[in-house]
């Protein structure tokens, strides 16, 4: 709903292209492409996947007609395989909402080719970090690598507690987001990789791991220091922070 509901996070994403040079292609790592092993979209035509229910029809009517990049998909798969990880190409899969929603805000003309690389809840954070390190050379080819998830993601706290869009931020959410920022500022990569176990109320903020895993791949791909580009909350319990690496 960020596409239709005004918020600081929406404004940030709408200006995302101003934070980076125009890429030749975008590699998206979305929390909603969760597979047993690494999977790369390799088709030219990318269907817009509406992988959700119970939302207004206007969301289901949206399409993001970006083209894929089979050559880039092959390069991604080769780098992942060279790092010793099983990897598979999927010529049929399109873009899930973890990809097309931020892309629709940042690059509304859909004129930059897009490839998706999956996460895997079957693997730990350090696996995702190593995958990121493996694909880091793509940055030299002017490929923008984006991890799309959520710094905190407890949907039960929204639906069960009936939180509205501008609900106050509870301490158990803000303390976790602040802890992540502090660990990044300290250069403590190991702590961030174990944030759900070590951070304050980590499991409350991530009852499942899927929405924090893209962060670890982005970290690995970017290397170097982390810069927080955006910090806000929606529904009180979703920290919408955005970081740039390297």
Describe the protein:
By secondary structure, this protein is α/β, with parallel strands linked by helices. It contains eleven helices and nine strands. It has helices spanning 8-14, 57-60, 70-82, 97-106, 125-135, 156-159, 171-185, 189-193, 195-198, 202-205, 213-222; strands spanning 25-30, 38-41, 87-90, 114-116, 143-148, 226-230, 233-234, 238-239, 242-245. A three-stranded parallel sheet has the order 4-1-5, with helices on both faces. It has a two-stranded parallel sheet with strand order 2-3. Helix 5 runs parallel beside helix 11 (213-222). The radius of gyration is 17 Å and the shape is globular. The protein starts with 7 loop residues before the first helix and ends with a strand. The mean pLDDT is 95.
Q: Tell me the helix content.
A: 25-40%
The span between the termini is 30 Å
Poorly predicted parts: none
CA-based shape: globular
Largest sheet: 3 strands, parallel
Radius of gyration: 17 Å
Q: Could you tell me the mean pLDDT?
A: 95
H/E series: HEEHHEHEHEHHHHHHEEEE
């Amino acid at each position: 709903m960020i596409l239709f509901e005004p918020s600081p996070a929406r404004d940030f994403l709408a200006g995302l292209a101003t934070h980076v040079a125009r890429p030749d292609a975008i590699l998206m790592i979305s929390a909603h492409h969760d597979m047993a092993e690494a999977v790369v979209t390799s088709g030219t035509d990318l269907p817009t996947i509406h992988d959700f229910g119970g939302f207004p029809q206007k969301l289901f009517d949206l399409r993001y007609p970006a083209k894929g990049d089979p050559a880039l998909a092959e390069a991604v798969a080769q780098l992942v395989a060279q790092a010793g990880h099983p990897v598979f190409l999927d010529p049929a899969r399109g873009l899930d909402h973890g990809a097309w929603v931020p892309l629709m805000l940042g690059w509304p003309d859909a004129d930059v080719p897009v490839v998706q690389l999956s996460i895997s809840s079957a693997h730990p954070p350090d696996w995702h970090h190593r995958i990121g390190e493996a694909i880091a050379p793509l940055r030299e080819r002017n490929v923008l690598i984006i991890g799309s998830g959520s710094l905190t993601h407890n949907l039960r706290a929204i639906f069960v507690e009936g939180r509205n869009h501008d609900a106050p931020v509870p301490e158990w959410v803000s303390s976790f987001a602040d802890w992540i920022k502090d660990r990044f500022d300290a250069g403590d990569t190991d702590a961030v990789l174990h944030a759900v176990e070590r951070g304050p109320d980590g499991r409350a903020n991530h009852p499942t791991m899927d929405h924090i895993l893209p962060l670890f791949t982005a970290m690995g791909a970017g290397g170097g220091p982390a810069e927080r580009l955006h910090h806000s909350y929606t529904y009180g319990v979703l920290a919408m922070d955005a970081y740039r690496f390297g």
